[in-house]
Amino acid sequence: MTDLTSLTIAAARDQLKARTISATELTEAYLSAIDSANGALNAYIAVTPDKARAMAKASDERLASGKAGALEGIPLGIKDLFATEGEHTQACSHILDGFKPRYESTVTANLWKDGAVMLGKLNMDEFAMGSSNESSWYGPVVNPWRARGSEEKLVPGGSSGGSAAAVAARLCAAATATDTGGSIRQPAAFTGTVGIKPTYGRCSRWGIAAFASSLDQAGPIARDVRDCAIMLKSMASVDKMDTTSVDLPVPDYEAALGKSLKGRKIGIPREYRVDGMPGEIEALWQQGIAWLKDAGAEIVDISLPHTKYALPAYYIVAPAEASSNLARYDGVRYGLRVDGKDIADMYEKTRAAGFGKEVKRRIMIGTYVLSAGYYDAYYIKAQKVRTLIKRDFELAFHAGVDAILTPATPSSAFAIGDKELAADPVKMYLNDIFTVTVNMAGLPGMAIPAGLDPKGLPLGLQLIGKPFEEETLFTVADVIEKAAGTFTPSKWW
Ligand code: GLN
Q: What is the reported pTM?
């Protein structure tokens, strides 16, 4: 028999429906894969075997009675940022020690309603702040990919590093993730997986620990484009608990695969060619352009002139919102409490002990840019820049562009503990140079693996679409995937 963990969601779905495999067998295969791999990879910070087995059993009963949902019996990993009732939900922060919510996030509730099985909670950067998964209270995640001939441990990207590593290493069929500035797309690019950040408002944010509320969106990381389409269909919904979720029908994203690119215009933004970008990234981009041209798309040069301001503006807007959102962790309501001589002292001690270095840095920056005297100079200015960035995209789409193709990241995965990056947070922030603009404009963005660099590490391309036109991204991504193939790390763990 083939290894059950090698089945894509689409393949497993067919076999489950045909009843040639059971949800219980599939779940057991993943639980034992996690058991043998997690010590080396640290992708899961909590495994929920009892819950997984009970959910799989219920799935098998529904499959037997012909009442299967769209994800019936499919075992998934859930980023620790999503509230899961009665289960570990700590945003990988010390400050949420022991917190188990009494409610379920809307996105995960949608997945369970469609029959998916929960395997456990996935590692991530603390409160989704980071690009390497090194800011987690639970320690770094190890990328299942290694450079050719090397045993050096690489990061899987962040903040959804556990999600990306678990998908790449076959420790779940797919995973939930979130993206505030690149946290779905950058880890997908670093691990040879596919990730989509849908349009702001496509998925409900209810029950997802807030980082920067105007930028945060949930989305899937999966092994291929089709699986990503299947996942997003189940995750997306309007929700009365999130007034920014949008009441639009959720299309059948799978139906967008296999469509022609004839008559479609793909924009190539000249500002995404940054100084010091390695030659292999430029080559990958050119290769992507050639594939789309071959498939009948028209390639047009476009300009997004405010791109260079996106990262600095993001690092004002995101910390500002984070400093406000994270004010709720005060030792009274959730998780950790460090007692003090009075209540103010208790707050201070709890927050000093509970938050890690990167989170503290964001809170300090956020409170600074929101403080009287600096608010107009920084926060309001950044909001204005944000509007200009959004307008750049609107002009391109208005001129007839259907989607935009860019590299996903300026490099492949780097080493855990990279000294240069650890010493200079701005260098780490530069990882998101190609992805943050998309969050600032609220647009859908997708990362698709497109090749390997000279070291044998995966590289991704990014597609950016019009609001609520994720289907176009799936159509174009499918063409890239058919040309590039899919990418699996060789097993060493
Ligand atoms: N790396 C970016 C940051 O640290 C984006 C994180 C994210 O998308 N959650 O803020």
A: 0.98
